Structures are given as C-alpha cells and as structure tokens.
Amino acid sequence: MQRRLEKDWELSIGPDTVRLFILKAKALSAAVYEDYADGAEHEVELDGSAHANHHHDGLAEESSENLTEEELRELINDLNVDEAAELVALAWIGRGDYDGSEWADALAAARERANKRTAKYLLGMPLLADWLEEGLEAIGA
After folding, report:
1. CA–CA distance, 138 with 87 (Å, rounded to integer)
2. Are 122 and 76 a contacting pair, CB within 8 Å?
3. Rg (CA), the chain
4. Cα–Cα dist 47/97, whole Å
5. 45-104: per-residue pLDDT in tens?
6. Could you tell me which of 103, 107, 109 has the C-alpha nearest to residue 139?
C-alpha cells in the first residue's frame, strides 16, 4: 500500500478556475503583444480624400480586447477575499518571491495586503499568466 504525500496547500479557488484566469490573461497579453509586435509607432499620412474613406476596422478588435480585460477584471473582482489572496499568492510564488514550499507564508502576506484593488494589481503584472502557471506548478496543483 502506497502512502500519499500530504499536500502543503489548500485552495479555496480551484486549480481549474486558476487555469481559466491563465487562459484569459494569455489572451489579453497576446492581444497587447500583437499591437506592439514591431515596437514602432506608425505614422498615418492623410490626404484630402482620406477623411471620407477612413474606416475604423480596428474597433471590433479593440472592443474584443477590452472585453477580455474587462471580463478578467470582473472575474477577479467576483472572487471572495480568500480566493483573491490565493491568486495573489500563486502569482508571487510563480514570480519567485516565494518558493512553493512557502505557500502558507505567501498566502499570509497576500491576506495582510488584501484590498479592493486586487484586479488592478494582478492585471498590472506583465507576466501574470506565466506566473500563475508557475505558481500552480510550484505547489503541485
């Protein structure tokens, strides 16, 4: 009979829910990357007839990108205090602020710093998807 190893973590937010956040964050960062892929600003030259023919083709794409960000923001804002702290702790572990074995410490620190701006804080992380993924992996979830 094999003995199962005890896990050092307990998540209120399910790993599958975190993976949904990861997918949303990846979609958001992919959209931003496509906008800035060449790293240059584009100059627009207008002539007299350009005003009449100018269409806003990019608005549909821009709207869907903003929808992804708004959707992710709302998902994060809908989390309870414990779930939000766990998401922050996972990001910190993935970023390397804490080791996977320091889950309790990371979670305690995230709970201490909890505020109403968790979504803004997390969405400000440039590698949020990667850090959440690495955080889940580090704790074995």
Report:
1. 13
2. yes
3. 20
4. 53
5. 444 544 444 444 444 444 444 667 888 899 899 999 999 999 999 999 999 999 999 999
6. 103
pLDDT at position 38, please?
47
| Those residues with Cβ within 8 angstroms of residue 109's Cβ, 6 or more apart along the chain or in another chain | 89, 92, 98
Report the alpha-carbon distance of residue 23 to residue 31 in Å, rounded: 12
CB 138 within 8 A of CB 89: no
The model's pTM is 0.70
Question: For the chain, how far is it from start to end, CA to CA, in angstroms?
Answer: 23
Q: What is the pLDDT of residue 68?
A: 77
Q: How many residues does the chain have?
A: 141
